[in-house]
Design a protein that fits this description.
alpha/beta, four-stranded parallel sheet, globular
């Protein structure tokens, strides 16, 4: 039913593009892409993603191959991606995601200062090397499940260190 309504809305020029979103399990989105040719995808993506139920392992390449608009969300993961001891900085978190093949990133901000900081980081951005990306991922490994709290089977913040996969 919903997909037929979306197609009708596009055919009637009420919308131009159709998208899919999710942050619980990348396999659900992969199944969605196998069932319909969406134009855009909104997916959870941050520096801790590669350690637990990864969206970038299979879903991101699939979206790239299909030439979809890719929108990253959960970049700071409500602050959890920085780690319990502030291991990661916002610059590292944004540079990590900006270095992936995305169209844009959605970042929640709590105040004007955070907006200004994020704009400066985006302005100064230079793509990270594979080695730099791996180093950032390594930093997030001990708390990856907490930094992925929205994913199926994740560990709520404050529950201790991961025994990551």
């Amino acid at each position: 039913g919903a997909i037929h309504a979306m197609i009708k809305a596009r055919d009637e020029k009420m919308v131009r593009f159709l998208g899919i979103t999710g942050h619980f399990d990348p396999n659900v989105l992969i199944e969605g892409l196998n069932r319909f040719n969406f134009d855009a995808i909104l997916m959870g993506l941050n520096a801790a993603d590669s350690h637990f139920l990864s969206f970038q392992e299979k879903l991101l390449p699939m979206a790239v191959q299909r030439n979809m608009a890719i929108i990253a969300m959960k970049v700071p993961g409500r602050g959890q991606v920085f780690g319990p001891n502030k291991t990661l900085t916002m610059k590292q978190a944004l540079d990590y995601v900006f270095s992936k093949p995305i169209s844009t990133a959605i970042v929640g901000c709590e105040n004007i200062q955070q907006i200004e900081e994020n704009v400066q980081i985006a302005h100064d951005f230079k793509p990270l090397s594979n080695e730099q990306l791996a180093e950032i991922e390594k930093l997030t490994a001990p708390y990856a499940r907490q930094a992925s709290m929205w994913k199926r089977g994740a560990m709520p913040p404050g529950q201790g260190h991961d025994d990551h996969d």
